[in-house]
Amino acid sequence: MLKRGTIISALTGLCLSFALKAYSIQPANTFKYIAQPLTSKAIVTLIGISIIGLELWWFLYRPKK
């Protein structure tokens, strides 16, 4: 036998899914492609890898007090 709360939550979810589907709005394609130079991509990638490496060093290998 299912619990009363389980049945109520299932019915609530079902009703909400139908309500949201009825009022859903189609998203507009407002994003435009921007060409980025390879050097910019490489710089951002290197900075990201450096930050990740610094965080790993900080949490794993820094001198303990």
Query: What proportion of the residues is helical, as a percent range?
Result: 55-70%
Beta strands, count = 0
Q: Which structural category fits the helices and strands?
A: mainly alpha
What integer value in Å does the Rg equal?
A: 25 Å
Oligomer: single chain
Count of DSSP H/I helices: 2
Stretches where pLDDT is under 50 for at least 5 consecutive residues are none
The mean pLDDT is 82
Q: Separation of termini?
A: 58 Å
User: Quick one: biggest sheet?
Assistant: none
Shape: flat
- Written as H for each helix and E for each strand, in order along the chain, the element string is HH
Report the portion of residues in β strands: under 5%
Describe the structure.
It is flat and about 55 Å long. The protein is 65% helix and 0% strand. The chain has helices at 4-22, 38-60. It is built from 2 helices and no strands.
Give a quick precis of the structure:
The chain is mostly helical. Helix content is 65%, strand content 0%.
What are the SSEs and their pairings?
Blueprint: H1 4-22, H2 38-60
Could you list some keywords that capture this structure?
65 residues; mainly alpha; 2 helices; flat
